[in-house]
Each structure stands twice: as structure tokens, then as C-alpha cells.
TrEMBL record:
Keywords: Membrane, Metal-binding, Transmembrane, Transmembrane helix, Zinc, Zinc-finger. GO terms for molecular function: zinc ion binding. PANTHER family: ZINC ION-BINDING PROTEIN. It comes from the Eukaryota. The keyword Oxidoreductase does not apply. This is GRF-type domain-containing protein. It comes from Lithocarpus litseifolius. The chain crosses the membrane at residues 142-163. The keyword Zinc applies. InterPro entries: Znf_GRF.
């Protein structure tokens, strides 16, 4: 209801709207696309009046047809935007997973590098041990050869010494007779 003298409108629950307290809105419906209207400031909350007044003249039929296409285009753009957001979320998730996988690979590479370093260190130690073993083997061979050499010398001296004793005995026997 409107009280024409004060420019106020009475709504439900005693709420009162005026031209100053109403909100200027724009219609997005296909039939009245782009038309402006005044509406209750409590449009989305609490008790509100049913005040509604068009500010613009009705749109022409061609305008409504164009509005329909504009609305379709807006819907399409909204769908594309939503799809782009979903793709962005998926790409962000893939990037996060790729980052996580890269961190795991980097950790594994670091561990492999550490294993390789330890292997190289143990390989160096094994080579040092092998060199010491070869040196020890060489010393043992020399000792063995020297021991055989001295054995042979002892045997030769023993044979020479025993043949001299045998020869002296033979010599002394005929001369002592």
C-alpha cells in the first residue's frame, strides 16, 4: 500500500519502504532483461514489504530476444569460467602431486648418491686391502723362494761336506794303510 502524501509504502510486519530506503536493482530475467526497478531493502533478509516499482519502460520484443541471447551467452561464459576453475584446481592438484613426486625423486636420488658414495668408499677400502694382500703375497713368495734357495744351499753344502768327508776317508784309508 502506498501513502501518496509521504511517499512511503507499507509492507508486512510493519516494515515501511520509501524511495530513499528502497534499493535500485536491475532485472536479469529474459522478459525484462536490463530493466531497473525499486525494491524493498530487506529483499533477502527478515521481514520485508512487497514494494516493487519499475523505473524504466518495458523493453521491446527485440530487446527481450537479444536479452535471451545475452543470457545464454552469460550462462555459457559462466559454464566456461566454472570449467576453467575446475581445470585450474586440477592443474594445481597435478602440480602439487608433481612437486611431491619430484621431492620423493630428489630424496631417492640423494639416498642413491649416498649409497654410491659409500660404495665408492668401500670399493677404495677393498682396493687398499687387495693391494696389501698382493704385497703380502709377494713377500710370502719371496720368503718361500728364499727358503727354497737356502734349503738347496744347505743341501749342496751338506752333500759337498759329506763327499769331502767320504773322500777324505777314502784318501786317508789308502794312505793310512
Amino acid at each position: 500500500m502506498m501513502s501518496s502524501s509521504s511517499g512511503t509504502y507499507s509492507g508486512s510486519n510493519g516494515h515501511m519502504c520509501t524511495y530513499e530506503t528502497c534499493l535500485l536493482r536491475t532485472s536479469l530475467t529474459v522478459d525484462n532483461f536490463g530493466r531497473r526497478f525499486l525494491g524493498c531493502s530487506r529483499y533477502k533478509v527478515g521481514p520485508k514489504c512487497l514494494f516493487f516499482k519499475w523505473i524504466d519502460n518495458p523493453t521491446c520484443v527485440r530487446g527481450n530476444e537479444a536479452a535471451h541471447f545475452v543470457q545464454q551467452k552469460m550462462d555459457l561464459l559462466q559454464s566456461e569460467l566454472q570449467l576453467a576453475h575446475e581445470r585450474e584446481r586440477a592443474a594445481t592438484q597435478v602440480a602439487a602431486e608433481a612437486t611431491q613426486m619430484a621431492e620423493i625423486a630428489q630424496d631417492r636420488a640423494a639416498k642413491a648418491t649416498e649409497r654410491e658414495r659409500k660404495f665408492r668408499a668401500s670399493s677404495v677400502q677393498a682396493k687398499e686391502i687387495a693391494v696389501r694382500a698382493l704385497e703380502q703375497e709377494r713377500k710370502c713368495r719371496i720368503a718361500l723362494m728364499l727358503s727354497w734357495f737356502f734349503f738347496i744351499l744347505v743341501m749342496l753344502f751338506s752333500c759337498v761336506s759329506s763327499s769331502e768327508n767320504v773322500g777324505m776317508t777314502k784318501l786317508s784309508l789308502p794312505g793310512g794303510l
